[in-house]
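User: I'm putting together notes for a lab meeting next week and I want to include a structural view of one of the chains we've been expressing. I don't have a solved structure, so I'd like a prediction I can at least talk through. The sequence is below, exactly as it appears in our construct file.
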Amino acid sequence: MLGLEHPESLASYGGDALIVASRAEIDRVVGELDATDRWLCEQIELQNFLDDPERRLRLSLELPPIIDRLRLVRQACIAAADSYFVGELHISAELREQPALDIQKIATGFAGLGSIVGALTETKVTAQLQAEIIGIAPPNSIHELGLRLAETGQVADGWIRIEKFGSRFVVYIPGTQDWSPFTGKNPFDLTSDFSAISKTGFAGSERGVALAMKQAGISATSDVLFVGHSQGGIVAANLATGYANSRVLTFGAPLGQVANRLKAETLSLEHEADLVPEIDLRPNPLTTNWVTVTDRLDSANPIAQHEMRGYLQTSAELDRAAETPNNHSMVKFKNEISGFAGDGPGAGQWFKLTRD
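Assistant: Thanks for the context. Below is the predicted structure for the 356-residue chain, given as structure tokens.
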């Protein structure tokens, strides 16, 4: 459900069918259910048994399960309304409290200004196959997907990882590795940060990942799971808009700028005190294809709030979250993405992306 508190410190919103009734209409339905409940209970009260006792006796046997079902429906209506409107209030509050700035235009302006002084300049990018591994086990949890993403970012600068399981592919895209405003060899740089936000298909890192995917045999109709952290999450979302059968898993990524175009099933993990998911100045949307999971990480260090180390803790907590009537969508998305690769062994390829 939307906007619900879960065990530990997890909360989530999104992923459910849209509720089109107003809160007043849902409250009216709940009132009707209450009235029906009371009327049915009156039919089997002791004083009424003198009036046709045989029929009253049959009613006393048949009505309790019906009344129980009505009460479950009533509770479900209240839970659905509370969940939806809490999520709606969460988003509307963020929109009210934050300035109405167009982050795409800002990023484009910075990139243009930077190019004038020789900084933030996009270049041609190449992708070269570095290694192949066969017989790898499929990732079967959000935590395992996060571990492989973290490993990808630590192997070497500019490297990405693509795994194939049957006809399905998993693409791991790390976050920013070079923070210099002057463009160097590694496309996972500050230049790509601005470019990825300003326009889909423009960032060097995004173009490099697309080249590697083509070499790996991924087409526009392939089943692909994009897994990305920070800048890698932006790149993952941008790329997913061009793949009809894609899914997206992100850690600490600002994705509000693609909200209207991202149709893939998306699971976004964010820390409440991580500033990076907030730089687009927009909350993630309240839609059926997107679940946002937030967590309170126990650290006062803003860098720790954004690091994959912290998100690995959150991913493990998410994997442990059991389904309840109030978090069906979160668990559904978690299970579908965890099981994306299937059960059989696969093969992995490592690519190095380089700016010319």
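A couple of points you could mention at the meeting. The longest strand covers residues 125-136. The radius of gyration is 25 Å.

User: Perfect, that's what I needed.
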